[in-house]
Write a structure and sequence with these properties.
By secondary structure, the protein is mainly β. The chain has a domain of about 90 residues: Sandwich (Immunoglobulin-like), CATH 2.60.40.790. The chain is built from 1 helix and 7 strands, in the order αβββββββ.
Length: about 150
């Protein structure tokens, strides 16, 4: 999302008045700057954003990687870190260029059943499914009445 600042016509500057939207613009700027500032170190040219979400059975890592062939994707779990690598190849005239995108996500070993991890790539979206161990799944506890 890109925010565009509109310049008011010069005839409005003759009358000193405050725009009713100036406070809202300032708040929106502050919100975006604080949100982007938190992630400034993680946004690099060779990285891509991922979505993390979970249900009672699994944790999911989802990444949108349009234009990348399935053969150019790599997913591995090493020492509690899920590493996703994608190589994008582009042709410029007769010259072919490629660059690699990487992303690492920390995964708690105790909560994930590493033997059943799966990944699917469909319509440019990579989804890695990390099944939870039985010990890590939420359990309902009944309260006894005395």
């Amino acid at each position: 999302m890109r925010i565009v600042r509109y310049n008011y016509p010069s005839y409005r500057s003759v009358v000193p008045s405050r725009s009713p939207w100036s406070g809202l613009e300032g708040e929106i700027d502050r919100l975006f700057n604080s949100a982007l500032g938190d992630f400034a170190g993680s946004f690099a040219p060779d990285r891509f954003p991922v979505d993390l979400y979970e249900d009672q059975e699994n944790t999911y890592v989802r990444a949108e990687l349009p234009g990348i062939d399935r053969a150019d994707l790599g997913v591995e779990l090493v020492d509690g870190t899920l590493n996703i690598r994608a190589t994008r190849k582009t042709s410029v005239g007769e010259k072919e260029e490629s660059f690699t995108l990487n992303r690492s996500v920390r995964v708690p070993d105790a909560a994930v059943n590493t033997e059943k991890i799966s990944a699917a790539y469909e319509n440019g979206v990579l989804t890695v499914t990390l099944p939870k161990r039985e010990e890590a799944k939420p359990r309902k506890v009944t309260v006894a009445v005395n």
